[in-house]
Design goal:
This protein is an alpha/beta fold and 556 residues long. Helices cover 28% and strands 25% of the residues. The strands form 4 sheets. It has a 7-stranded mixed β-sheet with strand order 8-7-6-9-10-11-12. The chain has a 7-stranded mixed β-sheet with strand order 17-16-15-18-19-21-20, sandwiched between helices. α11 packs across α12.
C-alpha cells in the first residue's frame, strides 16, 4: 500500500484530459503531473483516494521518446502550460485522441473515425497569444512582481516574458513595475483588499502591430498615469491605447466595467484574412472577446466557412456571436447573416465592426438565442416564406443551452456548423442533435492553444430526411465503369490522399473532381434530390490532392 509522500517507480501509459500522466501500480491508478506517455519515472504520492491517487514527478528514470525539454524554465511551476514537456507532434496526437475519445465515450459515436479529419496545428507553436493578463503582487522578499498563478492557487509565479505571448509584454511589465516603485504605488493584496494595481492586460494586433495596455486598479484613478503612458509610448511607439479598468470589488473577476481612457481611442484594430484574400477589420476594446490566437483563428473560421458551404444565397444565423467575428467572416459569402448574443456591449461592438467593414448584410440582436431566434423566425417565415439554411453556433465551454438545441432542431436548417472549445460538451450536444434528425458529416480539431490541453473543434452536421439533404449511394457492381474508373476505387483514392496529404476526402468531393476531369459518373451520383439544393463544393486543397491521386492511378 502506497501512502502519502511515499516514493515509487511507475510507467506512464496514458494522459488525462488535463494532461497528467496516467500509470498503475498493482491495479491502482495514479495521475502524475508533468509525466508523458512512455516515461519510466520516480514519483511521490501527494493524495491517495480509494481507487486512485495523485503524485508528483520526482525524477525521470527513462524518458519517453515523446519527451522534450520545456522551452520555458517555469513550465513545471506555472499553471499556464500543461504540455510543454511533450513534443509538439505528440501534443497534436493527444488532442486528436481527446476529441475522438469524447465523441465515442460521451456521444456514443463508435464510428467517429469515419468522419474525423486531422487536427490543424501550427508551424511555430510559441509566441502566439495576442492577449495576456498578468496579476501584480509582491513576492516573499517584498519585491513587486508580475506573472501567472501557479496551478490551482493564487500564488504568483514571477514571469515577465511568457513564451506564449509577444515579446513586447516584457517591456510593458518591467516599465510598469519600475513606475510603481518610483511612485510608491502598491500592488493589490487579495487577503486585505488593499493596494492599487491588480492586473495588467496587454493586447496586440498580429497583422496591424497595434498595442493596447489596460491596468486594472482598485481605485478611482492611478497616480501619474499620464507619466506612465509617456514612458510606455517612448519605449513602444506601437502603443495605440492606454486605459484603466476600475475594479474595487473583493472578487476573482479580473476586469471592472468602468474604463478610463488615458491615451488613444480606447481600442486597437486587427485583421482576419478571408480565404479569397480579402480582410475583415475588427476594433478590439479592453472588454471585447477576440480569439487569442490570430493565426489559428483564421484557420478555424476558414474551416467553419468551408463546412457552411455558402454560395451567396443562404440565410445564416450565428448563435453566441460575441462581437461578430464569425458573423462578419461569413457575411461576405452569404445572402444574409443574423447574429445573436446576450451581452449588449458585444452586440454594440458587432454593429460597429459591421459598419467599419461596410458590411450591410449582417444584422445583430441582443438576447438569448432560444428566445430571439424562434420569435424572428415565426415572423419572417410568415412574411417571406424564406427558411434558414445554415446555423453556426460557437457556445462557451459549458456548451449549448438545452433550449437553444431544441430551437435549432425546430428551425431545421439544412446544415449546422458547431464550433466548440470543449470536446466533452460538444459530444453531448452532438448526441442530442443526431437523435433529432441530424447526421455528422465532418469533425476537425484546430489547435488554438499549443502547449496547453485545450483544443477547438469544428463540426458539420446535415439534416436527414430532407429534400435538401444529399444522399450518396454507391454500388460499384451496378456502375457501367469507364476504363479510367476501373483503375482505382473510391476507397483507394481516399486512402492515397490520406496517406500522402493527411486530408480526408468524401466520395462527393471525388465525384466532383472526376467530373471536372472528364471522367464519366452515373447520372444521378452527384446530384441532390431537389433542384434548389446547395451542395458543399470541394475546397481547393482537397481538389488538388484528389487530382494528384487520379494522376497516380493513371486516371488522368
Amino acid at each position: 500500500m502506497i501512502n502519502k509522500n511515499d516514493q515509487f517507480e511507475i510507467y506512464i501509459t496514458d494522459l488525462s484530459d488535463e494532461g497528467a500522466g496516467i500509470g498503475k501500480t498493482d491495479g491502482f491508478t495514479w495521475f502524475v503531473k508533468d509525466a508523458v506517455i512512455g516515461d519510466h519515472i520516480l514519483a511521490a504520492a501527494t493524495k491517495v483516494k480509494k481507487n486512485y491517487g495523485f503524485a508528483r514527478l520526482v525524477k525521470v528514470i527513462e524518458p519517453s521518446a515523446s519527451r522534450t525539454t520545456p522551452a520555458c524554465p517555469l513550465a513545471r511551476s506555472c499553471g499556464g502550460c500543461q504540455l510543454q514537456q511533450l513534443e509538439y507532434d505528440s501534443q497534436l496526437k493527444f488532442k486528436e485522441s481527446k476529441v475522438l475519445n469524447d465523441l465515442k465515450r460521451i456521444g456514443g459515436f463508435t464510428d467517429a473515425g469515419a468522419f474525423f479529419e486531422p487536427i490543424i496545428g501550427m508551424q511555430q507553436p510559441f509566441r502566439y497569444r495576442n492577449k495576456a493578463v498578468y496579476p501584480i503582487g509582491r513576492n516573499k522578499e517584498g519585491r513587486i512582481i508580475a506573472g501567472f498563478y501557479a496551478g490551482r492557487t493564487h500564488s504568483i509565479i514571477a514571469c515577465e516574458d511568457c513564451l506564449l505571448g509577444f515579446e513586447e509584454n516584457r517591456i510593458v511589465l518591467s516599465t510598469i513595475i519600475k513606475f510603481m516603485g518610483d511612485n510608491d504605488i502598491e500592488p493589490y493584496n487579495e487577503n486585505t483588499g488593499s493596494g492599487v494595481v491588480r492586473h495588467v492586460l496587454i493586447r496586440k494586433g498580429l497583422h496591424t502591430g497595434e498595442l493596447m495596455v489596460c491596468i486594472v486598479i482598485n481605485a478611482g484613478k492611478l497616480k501619474n498615469a499620464d507619466v506612465l503612458c509617456g514612458r510606455l509610448r517612448e519605449m513602444l511607439p506601437s502603443l495605440k491605447s492606454f486605459t484603466l479598468s476600475v475594479n474595487r470589488e473583493r472578487t476573482n473577476v479580473i476586469m471592472g466595467t468602468r474604463i478610463i481612457n488615458v491615451y488613444g481611442p480606447g481600442y486597437i484594430e486587427d485583421l482576419i484574412h478571408d480565404r479569397d484574400g480579402s480582410q475583415v477589420r475588427f476594433r478590439i476594446s479592453p472588454l471585447s472577446f477576440f480569439q487569442v490566437n490570430s493565426e489559428q483563428m483564421e484557420k478555424l473560421y476558414g474551416t467553419a466557412l468551408e463546412f457552411a458551404g455558402l454560395t451567396g444565397n443562404e440565410r445564416v444565423w450565428d448563435l453566441y456571436c460575441g462581437v461578430g467575428t464569425i458573423s462578419l467572416f461569413l457575411a461576405r459569402h452569404a445572402k444574409k447573416v443574423y447574429g445573436v448574443e446576450i451581452i449588449p456591449e458585444a452586440i454594440d461592438n458587432a454593429r460597429e465592426n459591421a459598419e467599419l467593414n461596410s458590411i450591410d448584410n449582417a444584422e445583430f440582436f441582443v438576447g438569448k438565442a432560444e428566445e430571439v431566434l424562434p420569435e424572428w423566425y415565426s415572423k419572417e417565415y410568415r412574411k417571406t416564406g424564406e427558411k434558414i439554411d445554415v446555423i453556426v453556433v460557437d457556445p462557451p465551454r459549458k456548451g449549448c443551452d438545452e433550449n437553444c438545441l431544441k430551437t435549432m432542431v425546430s428551425i431545421a436548417p439544412k446544415r449546422i456548423v458547431y464550433v466548440s472549445c470543449d470536446p466533452a460538451t460538444l459530444a453531448r450536444d452532438l448526441k442530442y442533435l443526431c437523435s433529432e434528425g441530424y447526421r455528422i458529416e465532418t469533425v476537425r480539431p484546430v489547435d488554438m492553444f499549443p502547449q496547453t490541453v485545450h483544443v477547438e473543434t469544428v463540426c458539420l452536421l446535415s439534416k436527414l430526411k430532407s429534400t435538401q439533404h444529399i444522399e450518396v449511394e454507391l454500388d460499384m457492381d451496378e456502375l457501367d465503369l469507364t476504363d479510367a474508373e476501373k483503375k482505382a476505387t473510391y476507397q483507394e483514392i481516399k486512402d492515397y490522399v490520406l496517406e500522402h496529404t493527411g486530408l480526408k476526402v468524401s466520395s462527393l468531393y471525388i465525384a466532383q473532381v472526376k467530373q471536372k476531369c472528364g471522367i464519366i459518373e452515373r447520372e444521378n451520383y452527384n446530384k441532390p434530390k431537389s433542384e434548389d439544393a446547395k451542395q458543399p463544393q470541394c475546397p481547393p486543397d482537397k481538389e488538388k490532392a484528389i487530382k494528384e491521386a487520379l494522376k497516380h492511378f493513371g486516371m488522368i
